[in-house]
Amino acid sequence: AGIMTASALGLVISAIAPSTPVAVALVPFFVVMNLLFSGMPVLKSQIPVFLRWVTEISFLRHSFVAMLVNEFDNRSFGCTAQELQSGRCVYTTSYQIFDDFSAVGATIGKALGIMATLFVF
After folding, report:
1. Burial group, residue 61, by CB count within 10 angstroms (0-12, 13-18, 19+)
2. Do residues 75 and 18 touch, judged by C-beta distance below 8 A?
3. pTM of the model
């Protein structure tokens, strides 16, 4: 779904741009904005409040959340007391990961639904 949404974004930009060089210049702007607001390089909690709405229209964010849910849902991580004290074991449950990445309550279906909506519009 993420690839289809990215392709749709490219088609929209190429349809709006008056020429090929303009389209080629605009695509990196949209891709970098999607990457910055995806939640990977910058956590959603660290983004200024007035810009957090951009994370909701970032197809990379919803792809990332779907990956988080797929990989870490209902998991616990065995850490020794020494690892916890040294800070080498940051997470002990999947809930902590979802909380850090502002994805508590997320599901794969919800993320795919949002990406499908972005694809259509």
Report:
1. buried
2. no
3. 0.72
